[in-house]
Design brief:
It is built from nine helices and 19 strands. It is α+β, with helices and mostly antiparallel strands and 410 residues long. The protein has a six-stranded mixed beta sheet with strand order 1-4-8-5-9-18. The protein has a four-stranded antiparallel beta sheet with strand order 13-15-11-16, covered by helices on one side. Belongs to the peptidase M20A family.
């Protein structure tokens, strides 16, 4: 029996254990302390024991200090298995999950997994427990069959992905740069589609802006005595929308849509009654910039439109960045990690995946900024952050098969 068939058979045998491990992970809510949770400590402790139970080398810990977390740290785990040749292949999955949201929209306790109709339901089952378990059991399958990897395999289970990765991947890159090399192959299995037919190699830069317009609140019958912040916010929002689209018309066919996007989104409540002219307005823009557009240039346009409004209205305007990323160069479509991943996906799913860019952000961008090519792929249902989040067990098994092929370089 050839290696592929042996691996697939072993992964199929491990399916019940994989499902059980995923259910265990759902039961350990790793919600960030910034969102009112306890962080990843309990989940990391579980994984440290599970890794040993699976016959794999013990986890290395790279804790990030966080005074808001129990014990004052956010854990990051790395499992290393040496390979027969030179090189290193990383799989980065994250332990943290988002809060459950409105519990009335769930038919179950979000943190008690349910298995039904070929799916595992629960918060974190899809994002990112499925991929964590798939990478872990792909490596176990190789170990069980005494098949050494083609190169060193590093499984990283990281903290804080949902709130920006400050205590996760950024901590590893900033405080432990010795872990990485530009020659590393990095896979972030944290985004994809139902068919498993898309590999993300580029991301737009997030540029999230919150603008505050301050005037003077007065009675609705005496606008002459006040300064209407609502009118100023309306004018500024429209001016920003037009100016930003006009200033940055660049296109890139790698992305859908192929342009930078500048979208007015959130508007905070102002006054509770109709007959009061508000003296303060807060609104937001969600901008996603093509890699060729630098955030500093966008900020320059924002400042100019604010200056014009202040000069013509006498209102005071301030702004802050909810998020402002660094432009990340795309990963080359023929980079080794992309080619190996494409071969593995085609072998398992029978289709050659297309490559492209997305408007959303993943932690792959942090590696690209550091000059380390990274690819993003998963076969997953689009249920992340939703009530009734679930993962298809068939996707879990397919991912384990893909990852095992990459590890063995089949």
């Amino acid at each position: 029996m050839e290696v592929r068939e042996r691996l697939d058979r072993r992964i199929a045998e491990l399916e019940p254990e994989m499902v059980g491990t995923l259910c265990d992970l759902v039961a350990l809510p790793a919600v960030s302390p910034q969102d009112g949770g306890l962080g990843e400590g309990a989940k990391a402790a579980y994984l440290e024991k599970k890794v040993l139970d699976l016959g794999l080398p013990p986890c290395e810990r790279y804790d990030a200090p966080d005074p808001e977390a129990p014990g004052g740290v956010r854990p990051n785990l790395v499992v290393r298995v040496p390979g027969t040749g030179a090189g290193r292949l990383w799989f980065f999955s994250h332990m943290d999950v988002v809060p459950e949201g409105d519990r009335s929209l769930w038919t179950q306790d979000p943190f008690v997994a349910q298995v039904r109709d070929g799916r595992v339901y629960g918060r974190g089952a899809n994002d990112n427990g499925q991929e964590l378990v798939a990478s872990l059991y792909a490596l176990k399958a190789l170990r069980d069959l005494d098949l050494p990897p083609a190169f060193e395999i590093c499984l990283a289970f990281v903290a804080d992905e949902e709130l920006g990765s400050r205590y996760g991947i950024c901590h590893l890159l900033d405080r432990h740069p010795e872990l990485f090399s530009p020659q590393d192959l990095v896979l972030v299995p944290d985004g994809g589609n139902e068919e498993g037919s898309f590999i993300e190699i580029a991301e737009k830069t997030p540029f999230w802006l919150e603008v505050t317009v301050e005037g003077k609140q007065v009675h609705g019958s005496r606008p002459d005595l006040g300064k209407n912040a609502c009118r100023g916010a309306n004018e500024l929002s429209v001016a920003l929308d037009r100016a930003l689209h006009r200033a940055f018309p660049e296109t890139d066919p790698l992305f859908e849509p192929p342009v930078s996007t500048f979208e007015p989104t959130r508007r905070l409540p102002n006054v509770a009654n109709v007959n009061t002219i508000p003296g303060r307005e807060v609104f937001c823009f969600d901008c996603r910039l093509l890699p060729s557009v630098h955030p500093d240039a966008v900020e320059g346009v924002v400042r100019e439109e604010i200056r014009r409004l202040e000069e013509t209205t006498g209102l005071r305007v301030t702004y802050r960045f909810v998020q402002k990323g660094d432009p990340a160069p795309p990963t080359d479509a023929v980079a080794p990690v992309v080619e190996r991943l494409s071969r593995a996906v085609k072998d398992v799913l029978g289709k050659t995946p297309r490559v492209g860019g997305i408007g959303g952000g993943t932690c792959a961008a942090f590696f690209r900024v550091q000059g380390i090519p990274a690819a993003v792929w998963a076969q997953e249902s689009d249920t992340a952050h939703m009530p009734e989040e679930y993962t298809d067990i068939s996707h879990l098994v397919h991912e384990a098969r893909v990852f095992a092929r990459m590890m063995r370089d089949l």
